[in-house]
Amino acid sequence: MSKMIYIYTALLGVVVNFSVAALTLKEAVQHSVVTSPRVLETVKVCLANEQSYKGAVGGYFPTLDATGAIGYERSENNTTRDRASRLGGSRRRTLLRREVGLEARQMLFDGFSTMNNVSRNRFKLNASAWAVSSEANEHALRVAEAYINVLRQKELVKTARENVKIHKRTYEMISRRSASGVSRNTDAVQAQGRLAQSSSNLKSAEGHLMDAETAFFRVSGMRARRFTTPRVSKKCFPQSEKQALEQAIEYHPGLRAANSDILEALSQHKEANSTMMPHIDLVGGVSYNNNLDGVQGENNDQKVMLEGRWNLLNGGKDIRRRRETAYLAQQSAEIRNNTYREIIENTKLSWIAYKTNSQLIGYFKQHMDSARDTIDAYGKQFQLGQRTLLDLLNAENEYFSSNSIYIKTKYDILLSKYRVLSSMGLINDELKTDLTALGAASVQLDDLTEYPEILDDNYQLHKKLVSKRSKEKYARGNNYQEHGNKIDKKGKNYSREKIQKYHENKHATHSINKPSRMQYKQLGVIKNQDGSGGGVREFGRQRTTIDNPDSRTEPEKSYTIQLLASGNEPAVNKFIRNAGLDGVANYYRAKKKNGDDWFVVTYGKYGSKRAAISAINDLPDKMSIYRPWARTVNSMKYSELVYGNEEEDNFV
After folding, report:
1. Domain chopping of the chain, boundaries
2. pLDDT value of residue 455
3. By the 8 A CB rule, do 236 and 426 touch?
4. CB distance 110 to 308 below 8 Å
5. Which of 32, 230, 259, 299 minimizes the C-alpha distance to 124?
6. What is the pLDDT of residue 181?
7. Torsion 509-511-516-522 (CA) sign
């Protein structure tokens, strides 16, 4: 009994320590990847394919078969009839027949069936191994999403509790003022209603937190109370969208698995051709027999011989099988092209989400800080009777809303970073996840980053793999090989230097996007990796829109938002007061051509026109009636600043 108590106590201690200790994202991914049923399912498929590959290699080795048989045999042949004519008796003879044999067979030529079968199983194993890596990459992202969502919900619950405290403090203040007769009873009722609303928001946030913790357990199989905010290393994270796309095409395991599937289908197509070729085996064997074919006594044989066979007619099944495998190879290529498009799409969407949220987080933080300062200011003004209770309660709700948006955006940025890494196939590299515990395959796999060619409509395979020289160009998704010369349809040879010189001298003014008919004729159309019709690329010329620093445009001028323009100065002052823009907006006086005064109200300073337009979209709906628009700060230099600070350099 004491031993069982000791064991239960130890287990309880482990559970308590696991629940109390902080769980990092790296630990969660490491544990869940090697225990996930979905990942282990792909591992089992890979192990099965490994055995299939090793079994296919056995086709090169000789086979040894042992045979044996015993039983009665009734025979009637020339031997039994001759015996009956000489000795008399029946022309049929029944004897106890016994056979024992041993045969060795070595394949010498089978139409390359064994060789192609080994290649097919190797590429199949290669694809399944990369599928394990791809599933581990996707599962790591699922764990990261669930982990970050728990962190997000925890902070939202904390914000909701703070909101309840703020509303509770306001309600207690209003209750005391109402009891003393300073405030009306309706104020206390209104404050109580807002307190109930904040309490319901807290309960809702706590419910979302429990949902997030349940979802995390579903994908990771782990429970923990404490989570730590992860950080993404700058060394692993790409610096631009172009770099992210290049690394996604080069490293993503899903694309490598798709390339292996194409090579597997091509090997299967070659294997189908073996049925149209002769098969030759070297056969050796011995047999020890007794009472064969009605002849009493031993009948022993030893043989070593070449055995050949060649199927000449099979009802057209072999031809149909060859065409079937050709279409299967083309299907694998289209699957690869679709995988390529999906990877490009996921990478672009993840990068756009990361950049967009990174640009918005500054605005949301400014909004949150302003809302917090507004609560303090409105609280003091309410005590002095300069603000109504509704103003104070609305300010508190605005702070809660802005704080919630800021928290969600903050974790959206973190999540989008991991999505970018996952779309590149590098999330486990960033988290340093050890995948060797999966033990997917014990053989050395091929790191297929080249793109195999596919069969054309005539079932002809022109190139099995692209050359190593063009590996980098294939990694960028361009489906062409790098050659020193370019030959047009008429057979005329154009060297690369000749083409470059031709365009520099005679067609320097032509645009790459709109080439002339001569350019189309000499250069041809290069197809993209996704199979869509490509554009025309000039050999030996750089794309200055990306790589040439001299082609970069100057930074945009700073912009501001014009909120109102009017010739009525009292109306402009009233607008500023009612909108709460005192000390915030700039107020200018300009002159019309007829000499009349013209008053302009501007707000904010932005580093680009896009940022200014985005800020206009975030303005209150009531501002839309004034039709605010973005204008350069430099356009106001001839106007007189009545009040404000036009020298402020704090760009939004």
Report:
1. 1-60+126-277+323-479, 483-551, 559-643
2. 56
3. yes
4. no
5. 259
6. 66
7. positive
